[in-house]
Amino acid sequence: MPLTIGRYDADDALLAAVRADGVTRLAVTRPPGPQVVLGAGSRPERELHLGAIAADGVPVLRRAGGGCAVVLDPGNVVVALAVPADGLPSSRTVFDWISAFVIEGLARSGVRGATREGICDLALDGRKIGGACLHKDRSLVHYSLTLLVDPDLALLPRYLQHPPREPEYRRSRDHLQFVRALAQLDPAWTAPRLAAALDAALAPAELLATPFPEPRPAR
Prior knowledge:
The chain is an alpha+beta fold. 32% of the residues lie in helices and 24% in strands.
């Protein structure tokens, strides 16, 4: 049976509002259930374990942003941000700008020591706690970050093959060696708790008042 791929539309209302009035907006949400989300250029047969996904009846969606496939479930917290595109610098500088803003918000929420790794990951002690993607069109930039709080990590190796591309800091580690859920560090962390904390800590006005970082040299 052919794989049915839907469209990732969780942020449609956010994007429509920003396109309508040009006001930067941010939303902190949790996925309603398990789902697999492909990047814009992802190849399902290369990135997914299609048999396991079909057996479990998990929806497969495709987002507009880049990157490889990810697994979402209610134990994740998703931070979505839409910024009017006028005057924004290159995508990599935008990643750095927003990543620094989110790292500061995490620190104020009680998650301290996060660093940006690769182009768009967030990590603690060299293990990934969150991954982001970016999509830029003529009217806006859409940033989406998925944070691993208390997800079912067993779904990662069940649904995802080892990715065809990886950041240098991954060092070929498998999924469970590479990622770290915040609840593994402190069982008090739950997705509802972090979602509420970040909703209070992340103010778009603060991001807009922050200067763009200096561009990183190409590597």
